[in-house]
Design a protein that fits this description.
It is a single chain. The protein contains eleven helices and no strands. By secondary structure, it is mainly α. The chain has one domain. Helix 1 runs antiparallel to helix 2, helix 1 crosses helix 3 and helix 4 crosses helix 5. It is globular. The protein starts with a helix and ends in an 8-residue tail after the last helix. It comes from Inconstantimicrobium porci.
């Protein structure tokens, strides 16, 4: 059993748990962290997707009451021909509408996009995403007439968020940042934009994970790989639970430009190091 490999997997899971729900790109950080510690290969590509599902499980646990109630009301609306469950049905349709754009783009271009999951692409995503986050926050965050309740979201607003979520397909852009920016543009308060981004992450990540698991060759799995996968899933789940609670509290008090500045500075620093050949990201 390769203890060093398991420890590397543990480290990547911690990185995922910390970065999945804050607007800095979990995929980008995992790619860079994996490059730094020599954690790569076909298993790693599948591993990084599966532990993201562990992070998504944290959403299900923290917001279980809302999810359970909405599912019950969604089907109640259908079976009572619209007499009951309108709130849950509307919420469910909003989530579906928000998921359609990234679902279509993922089906059409997933393999091509995944081939771009390299450190150089992450650097571009860090800088471009950070600058975009600064611009959108300054333009839309403080506008009046904000939607504050998740049950008041309109179909047009949910589609707006869904269209912005497509940006997350570029490594380093960040799904969280993309959907929160979509929420600002749609007229959400910042806490609502973050909360809604948690919910629409569920179908997006389940779809991505399902596709990767179906295509993965499980014949290569060894005890070391199974232990790494299970451990990583659990660690990502636990760390994400903690970070989500802290992030929501942070957003109620402070702007997100600190994350944007971090992204731009990190991207520029990495770009300088690469261009001056101090580090070499690809073999």
């Amino acid at each position: 059993m390769d203890i060093i490999f398991i420890l590397k997997a543990f480290f990547i899971a911690v990185v995922e748990g910390i970065t999945e729900f804050i607007p800095v790109s979990s995929t980008g950080h995992m790619i860079l962290a994996g490059w730094a510690i020599g954690f790569n290969g076909d298993f790693v590509k599948m591993y990084e997707v599966v532990i993201q599902l562990g992070a998504i499980l944290a959403v299900v646990v923290l917001f279980w009451h809302k999810i359970k109630t909405s599912i019950i009301e969604f089907f109640k609306f259908i079976f009572t021909f619209g007499r009951e469950g309108k709130t849950g049905f509307k919420f469910g349709i909003n989530v579906i509408v928000s998921s359609i754009p990234i679902g279509i783009m993922g089906l059409l271009f997933y393999k091509r996009i995944k081939a771009k999951f390299v450190p150089e692409a992450v650097i571009v995503g860090f800088i471009a995403g950070g600058l975009l986050l600064l611009i959108v926050e300054s333009m839309f965050r403080k506008k009046k007439s904000k939607t504050q309740n998740i049950d008041d979201i309109s179909f047009v607003q949910s589609l707006t968020v869904g269209l912005l979520q497509v940006l997350a397909l570029w490594p380093g852009m960040s799904r969280s940042a993309s959907t929160i920016m979509g929420g600002w543009i749609a007229g959400f308060t910042t806490p609502l934009a973050a909360e809604y981004s948690f919910f629409i992450a569920i179908p997006a990540m389940i779809g991505t994970t399902g596709k990767d698991l179906l295509e993965f060759d499980f014949s290569i799995m060894t005890p070391t790989l199974w232990i790494s996968l299970i451990t990583g899933f659990i660690v990502a789940f636990l760390v994400s639970m903690i970070v989500m609670k802290k992030f929501i509290s942070f957003l109620k008090k402070k702007p997100m430009k600190v994350f944007a500045v971090y992204r731009v500075c990190a991207g520029i620093l990495l770009a300088v190091l690469v261009l001056t050949h101090i580090i070499k990201l690809t073999a």
